[in-house]
Backbone:
């Protein structure tokens, strides 16, 4: 079950908003599709991202996938633990495996993202 | 998908990429044993009084000198020395051979072999891929898994030898070959009996830690062992000498297709060479990424990954023939970033010999 305290993209990222900040990660479905994750490329703190822009890369044994930013914002922290333990995304995609923390640009709107129920329906339809 | 296999389309077959975790399957094969369904491989039978001469002149290795019950790795080249395919040749009778080729090349290989057979009286070429299933059992415990099922003593089957025997009561060509860098066996059986064989082997391996393994682990295992994959290290533009396959090219044979071209390559030295690379900064080199030396793009990565057994970011790739020695520093372009690396020896992984 997808946590209901956050919203989801069609590309299987999640966005957990806390005030004008929030965390980004990839979903349980995404990590299970990718399989064993062996490398994560993280952005520099301070980088300003557009919604839908690649903020990093997650590599499994056999695949390379962009992580797209669910909202427009500035990178204020990255999950340093992923550099040595990329498998945290497999083990705990919604918690320990978070990828970046963003500060939203004021005019951004996460309302276009799916809630948990809509995301589940979306995944099940594919 | 009773085993929870993740399927991918490959060469027209629906094949298991993995049954849960490529890394676990990889480890099982290195430490215990794994079982692979590789029935997608193509099998071509060549038979007739002149089959020995025909096969010998078709491939780069000394296939004509094989005894019945022997197999070898070799290449099939064009007149210009480029590789049509890499394959195993089995001598199944005094005048009968089986060629085991890559799935995605089977159709054109068959066409090529048929065309080449025309000059040899009475040689018949038959595609037996559809009726032939191939199950590989690989790993240090492979012999232990198969022993209770095999009619023959497995100790009597040396590397690259085979027996036409029964396994779990099923007629099989059982060879001590594989594509993982481990000890192991490949079993060619009637496709109608493959499921039965698969189940019997899984059951026999239950207490030994045998795991079903998919194409993903097959690729990571062959990569660490430095074995070429057609479509990556080898393709229509590659010759076997630049791919480091000289031991399988017998230039002193009187005749084979591509010999004259390969003699010229050998005389001048290959223009480029396949080498092992290790990245010295974070990143993973992947197929198609550019390789630069002294600020200039000079080659391409053919395969790369975080090698599961070794835990290092390794790759295979082509660099200029005169700049291919181990220790040389280079850079791989990883999504626009230059990641420092160096040339290292291959194979990356070599199993320790067990008694």
Residues:
């Amino acid at each position: 079950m997808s946590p209901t305290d956050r919203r989801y993209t069609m590309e299987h990222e999640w966005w957990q908003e806390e005030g004008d900040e929030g965390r980004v990660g990839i979903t349980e479905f995404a990590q299970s599709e990718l399989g064993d994750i062996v490398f994560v490329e993280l952005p520099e703190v301070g980088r300003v991202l557009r919604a839908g822009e690649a903020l990093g890369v997650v590599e499994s044994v056999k695949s390379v996938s962009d992580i797209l930013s669910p909202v427009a914002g500035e990178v204020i922290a990255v999950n340093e633990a992923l550099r040595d333990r990329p498998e945290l995304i497999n083990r705990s995609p919604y918690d320990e495996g978070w990828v970046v923390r963003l500060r939203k640009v004021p005019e951004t709107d996460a309302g276009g993202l799916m809630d948990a129920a809509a995301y589940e329906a979306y995944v099940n339809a594919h | 998908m009773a085993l929870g296999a993740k399927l991918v389309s490959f060469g027209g077959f629906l094949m298991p990429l993995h049954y849960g975790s490529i890394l676990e399957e990889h480890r099982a094969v290195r430490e215990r044993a794994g079982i692979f369904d590789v029935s997608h491989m193509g099998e071509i039978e060549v038979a007739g009084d002149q089959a020995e001469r025909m096969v010998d002149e078709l491939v780069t290795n000394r296939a004509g000198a094989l005894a019945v019950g022997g197999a070898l790795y070799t290449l099939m080249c064009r007149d210009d020395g480029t590789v049509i395919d890499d394959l195993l040749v089995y001598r199944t009778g005094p005048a009968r051979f089986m060629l085991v080729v890559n799935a995605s090349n089977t159709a054109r290989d068959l066409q090529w072999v048929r065309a080449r057979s025309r000059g040899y009286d009475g040689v018949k070429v038959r595609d037996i891929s559809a009726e032939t299933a191939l199950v590989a059992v690989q790993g240090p415990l492979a012999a232990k898994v198969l022993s209770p099922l095999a009619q023959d003593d497995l100790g009597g089957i040396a590397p690259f030898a085979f027996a036409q025997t029964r396994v779990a009561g099923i007629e099989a060509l059982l060879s001590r070959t594989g594509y993982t860098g481990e000890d192991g066996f490949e079993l060619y059986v009637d496709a109608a009996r493959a499921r039965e064989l698969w189940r019997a082997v899984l059951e026999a391996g239950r207490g030994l830690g045998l795991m079903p393994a998919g194409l993903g682990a097959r690729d990571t295992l062959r990569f660490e062992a430095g074995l070429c994959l057609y479509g990556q290290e080898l393709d229509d533009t590659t010759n076997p000498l630049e791919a480091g396959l000289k031991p399988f090219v017998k230039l002193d044979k009187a005749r084979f297709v591509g010999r004259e071209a390969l003699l010229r390559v050998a005389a001048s030295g290959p223009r480029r060479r396949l080498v092992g690379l290790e990245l010295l900064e974070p990143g993973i080199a992947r197929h198609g990424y550019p390789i630069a030396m002294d600020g200039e793009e000079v080659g391409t990565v053919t395969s790369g990954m975080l090698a599961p057994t070794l835990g290092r970011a390794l790759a295979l790739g082509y660099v200029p023939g005169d700049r291919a020695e181990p220790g040389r520093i280079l850079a791989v372009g990883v999504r626009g970033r230059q990641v420092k690396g160096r040339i290292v020896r291959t194979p990356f992984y070599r199993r320790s010999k067990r008694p």
User: Anything to note?
Assistant: Chain A has a mean pLDDT of 94.
